[in-house]
Amino acid sequence: MIFKAAVLEKKKKLKILQLSLPKLREGQLLVKIMFTSICHTQIQEILGLRGKDKFLPHCLGHEATGIVVKVGPGVKKIKKNDKVCLTWIKSNGLEGKTIKYLNGQSNLVNAGPVNTFSNYSIVSENRAIKLPKISNLKKDVLMGCAIPTAFNAVFNTLKDNNKKNILIIGSGGLGLASIFAAKKMGFKKIYALDKNKAKLQIAKKFGASNTIYLDSLNNFDEIMKKYKNFFSCAIECSGNITLMEKSVELVKNFGGNFVIIGNYQKGKKISLDPWNLIMGKKISGSWQNEFNYEKYFQIFYKRFKYFKYKNFFGKKIYKINEINLAVKDFINGKVIRPLIKM
Hints:
Quinone Oxidoreductase, Chain A, domain 1; 2 domains; 18 strands
């Protein structure tokens, strides 16, 4: 069977290729991809910002929805014709072996246990979760990455936190999902910070009560001085190392909680004043425990019911042949997160 895939051939070169499918092995599914999306992890892979890439050429993508075409040996939790959400987060089931698609007669293209920038993909059973028969496959793409990351940060990592106020740093995909979750969680004041005024307007639609426009890091000290030691907690979603370093000053001494969920370039280091830790500020990530997504999926899915996905994706839906345009628009801030129809 021949299918179409966006393949990273070398740094900054994403090319649409015609590939052929190998035989399914133990623990693998063949999925017809309906919708996928791009997050900053893929942007970093494409731009070569995640260190040396040992697997070129390879397929990309780790959040999608689709319909199961066929199941391989040993697969138990998923059946043919099931609607599924594909995700990088492990859940129940087998993890299949490395996938190698064939390009032409002899050229191999690598793929990990989940790959979604294609109209058909082979994925591991433990990277697929069954969706309800009646489900919105456009919207449910977000259950693959943005929603579990943000929801876990708010509903689990910050569940015992003071709900007086919260600062969401960055109003992109993770930021908007965090704002929505913070609203559901009952935070009284939700502040959204961004350098993009249009994104701040969208943040209000997701539940931000206050917005902070920071046009340049050079203006951070002046604009943010009144917020020093002000916030009960903050979630860093921007992926900007310098902004992360500076923003730790904004959470309160004696129990202020600073959660980091942004995506950062490999090899970057941070520099922090140790007095932030001495004075009782807590710095953590979203994932506090080994995480089995099967356990939380239905909980998160119910809370996701009223998520305004059209405001999140915008009006533009890209086709697979437009994936390089989608990447460009994403990098340039023209879209919160590109939605791609296969």
